Amino acid sequence: MTVSNGCLDAKLVLLLYFWCSCFLGMSSFFRSFVIVALFFSVGFAVRHFFGSAEAVRETSLEASSPAVGETDSVRSTDSKETASEATQVLETKQWFQVDYRGNWEELFNLLLGVSTQDKDFGGLLGHLNSLSASDKVDLLKAAFVFENKGQIRDFINVMYTQLSRSDPSAAVTLFESMSIADRMEYDQILIRGWARSDAMSAWEWLHSLDREGLGSYLDRRRLTSLSRSILSGLARDSEKVMNALELAQSVEEMKTQDMLVGSVVRQMARNDLDAAVAMIQESADLESVIVESVIDAWALKNADEAAAFLMSSPDVATPRSASSVSRNLLRTDNIDGFMGLYDSFASQDLKEPMASQAVARFAGEDLDIAIDWLNTIDNGLTKARAGFSALRSMGFTDNMDDHMRFIEEGFVGGGAGKRNLYVYSLSEWRKVAPEAVEEYVRNIPDDDYNMREKVIERLGMEESTRTLRD
Fold first, then answer.
1. How confident is the model at residue 166 (pLDDT cuts 50, 70, 90)?
2. Domain ranges, ordered by start, for the chain
3. pLDDT tens digits, 448-468
4. How far is CA 175 from CA 193, 213, 303, 347, in A?
5. Which of 351, 347, 387, 382 is nearest to 370 (CA)?
6. Residue-level pLDDT at 463
7. What is the DSSP letter of 179?
């Protein structure tokens, strides 16, 4: 049985009061006896007090603590729950570390719900990068025939890029097994990846392909595009730019060669314009495409200096370089510089491209000046091109009369050039003001070139204009 602390304190007070009262009336002998008895009483009371407190504490602990058998059970349950949570986390976070060899389709289906921005996607790529080249080839072959291939295209692109960089021979083997459609989609990835590690080998392989055997897949346009990818990577390195230029010049087909040489030289000028300019200033026998490409870049940065070079070296000027410099002079409103360069040329072949730039420049702000410049051009093709550029710069939102006046006064007479401009302009205006177009077409003079009838036929307006004429 236990006693509360409150009851124990009251009993001690009463006991002490009783003993003190008796103590004062006793003899010395009895006082000594009482003192001894009191000492033992206090000791007993103290032991009783602390014993009760300890009992209370033990009782509290017993109430809040499980039994011995229950403790092991609780610990076991907590351990199982923690292990279960850890297993779930492991399964969720590390799916990308599973070995999917032999069951690539399971991986592809998982990828359908994974963004390329997801950190797990990066983990997957790192994991798959450790695969052998043959395993990567097997993976990509399976990906090419996966029914939802389009939805994992980014994954395929990354994996094929990695393969092209790390093992070009395996990438080529895979490429040769692809369908024509897949080759057209992945050839740039192969070439760019391969060129990063060995551009020369990539170039040799590309230009050793049997173009006739590959049919329409490897036409001149695609070959030029793939070649440019290799050369661009080389040319960005200043130490390898001359190697790129030599490769470009080795192409037999002249039109393709000019395109590739121009691409390399423009990159050379971006790397170091001063060095490229010095090259054309110091070398008198450079190919015209090299000079033109350097001047293109030079005129964009400093048209005045490029113009001064052409005026001092008119023998290296070409229609393309004259047009490039004049376009940039007019872009910066340097009309005096433009006229100075124009007047310095005696050749009409050089003047007419400059006049074409002037037509396009002034058509939108001063139609009379634009028409005057147009009438300085004698070459029919150059004049027609200038006319088309001017009409585009004028726009097709208002004032159709200006368009018609430009054609009528700039192309006096007839011919295919004038007819083509009529058809082009009226086709556009027909979208904005169809009734005005029909009215205008009805009043085109029926001259020696049968201009009206031919325009009507080209526009497909026979029925509507016949009604108007009747």
1. very high
2. 1-63, 395-470
3. 678 888 999 999 986 555 544
4. 13, 15, 46, 52
5. 387
6. 52
7. -
Q: How far is 217 from 207, CA to CA, in rounded Å?
A: 14
Q: Whole-angstrom Cα distance, residue 107 to residue 98? A: 9
What CA–CA distance (Å, rounded) separates 295 from 323?
Answer: 10
φ/ψ region of 215 (left if φ > 0, alpha if ψ in -120 to 50, else beta) reads left
Q: Which residues of 103-128 are buried (b: 16+ CB within 10 A; e: fewer)?
A: ebeebbebbeeeeeeeebbeebeeeb
Residue keyed to tokens 């350097």: 294
Q: Give the number of other CB atoms < 10 A from CB of residue 56.
A: 14
Nearest to 206 by CA among 374, 144, 192, 300: 192
Give CA–CA dist 439/278, Å, rounded.
59
Q: What is the mean pLDDT of the chain?
A: 82
pLDDT of 237 above 80: yes
**CA dihedral for 27, 30, 36, 41, sign (positive or negative):** negative
**Which two tokens mark 295?**
């001047």
Q: Which pTM value belongs to this model? A: 0.67
Contact 39, 31 (CB under 8 A): no
Q: What mean pLDDT is predicted for residues 141-147?
A: 94
CB atoms inside a 10 Å sphere around CB 275: 13
- Please identify which residue in the block is written with the tokens 């990066």: 122
pLDDT tens-digit series, residues 281-340: 998 789 999 999 999 999 999 999 999 999 999 999 999 999 999 999 999 999 999 999
